[in-house]
Write a structure and sequence with these properties.
184 residues
């Protein structure tokens, strides 16, 4: 299951730099995302995200953030409520060219239809060269469930919190590396 989460996270991360650009914030609460990957060899996945204004921005920033700095093209057009995004981004030795069309309402339901073409290094679960079509159907389910907090992401029976993961990553970056024989 952990391997599937890593593959799913890699797919979302590869797509999200294009999606993180100037996207409207979603309505706070519990969102369900259904992701279908054509020709990527991955099964359809369901995910739930508990958001508020700050964690919605964080989730976009986590996948866009520093990865956005490696994008040579980031064109976003909003015409009549349809957002079209074209990007070219390089990360991990791969260059990904993406075209996404986002329609719907960030208060109730929206759809992302994205086509990406990769060149260079392989992405986990996918070959180095090739194209992928991903469709995300998102809908607002209501307030977050009891016991959920903003930043919680649920995939299958696995749950993690984006805020806690970011804090852990920051702590790990700040830790000095010691040789394995050194005493704590």
């Amino acid at each position: 299951m952990l391997r599937r989460l890593v593959v799913l996270a890699a797919c979302v991360a590869c797509a999200s730099p294009a999606l993180a650009l100037d996207m409207p914030q979603r309505k706070p609460g519990l969102w369900q995302l259904k992701m279908a990957f054509d020709n990527a060899g991955l099964p359809e996945r369901m995910m739930e995200q508990c958001t508020d204004a700050s964690t919605d921005k964080l989730m976009n920033g986590n996948y866009g953030g520093s990865a956005m700095e490696t994008c040579s093209k980031q064109d976003v057009h909003n015409s009549g409520g349809t957002i079209t995004i074209d990007s070219v981004c390089s990360f991990g030795g791969a260059t990904t060219t993406s075209h996404a069309v986002v329609t719907g309402s960030f208060d109730s339901a929206y759809t992302v239809d994205m086509t990406s073409t990769r060149h260079g290094a392989p992405v986990p679960g996918m070959p180095a060269e090739g194209s992928t079509h991903m469709k995300v159907e998102a809908k607002w389910l209501g307030p977050c469930a009891a016991g959920q907090k903003p930043g919680d992401v649920i995939v299958g029976n696995q749950k993690f919190n984006m805020v806690e993961m970011q804090k852990m990553q920051q702590q790990m970056r700040g830790m000095p590396l010691r040789p394995p024989y050194a005493r704590p």
